[in-house]
Write a structure and sequence with these properties.
Layout (H helix, E strand, L loop, with lengths): L18 H30 L6 H25 L12 H10 L2 H12 L5 E7 L6 E7 L10 E7 L6 H4 L3 H10 L3 H6 L3
Antiparallel strand pairs: 1-2, 1-3
Helix pairs in contact: 1-2, 3-4
The structure holds fe (ii) ion (FE2).
Length: 192
Amino acid sequence: MSYTARDYGNLVGIEGFSETLLKNHFTLYQGYVANTNRLLDSLASMLKEGKVGTPEYAELKRRLGFEFNGMRLHEYYFENLGGKGAIDKSGRLGKKLAEDFGNYEDWERDFKGTGTMRGIGWTILYQDNVTGKLINQWINEHETGHLAGGIPILVLDVFEHAFMIDYGLKRADYIEAFFKNINWDKVESRLK
Ligand SMILES: [Fe+2]
């Protein structure tokens, strides 16, 4: 079984994201899907050929965390875009954010602050699957820093390719545009 790239063409036209930016981003995402498939095929062949235990096998195994998460995180990201309007603070997610962060505004400040940290990667609002607690987390590149078993609730891409075409170095402005387009219904549906 191989992975198929999903189509997010429906996002073209959302406010604050140019068509050029989005189309480049879709192409990049498709590359992660292709590379995930390629890596999984190579690893399966190496297993059959008795190459487990070789340095080549080890390096490909390490690489899988980068390509697979690069694929899956883009899917979470594109799927939590396309909405209009603010969060319903009296909804299930709104109440839970206020409960875990003291109030909604503190959650938003923490999430945006995490998103503007220096470096490339992702900002993810995670739900701890054991306790249900909500935690904002920074991910280095695609694979470092994930919370084991955690459920990604809201996913923000802060690699430069996600915003530079439209915003240059103004990452905070991009994050504001991202917030205007969050599909909060989708985000809330991910809560356990
Ligand atoms: Fe990206």
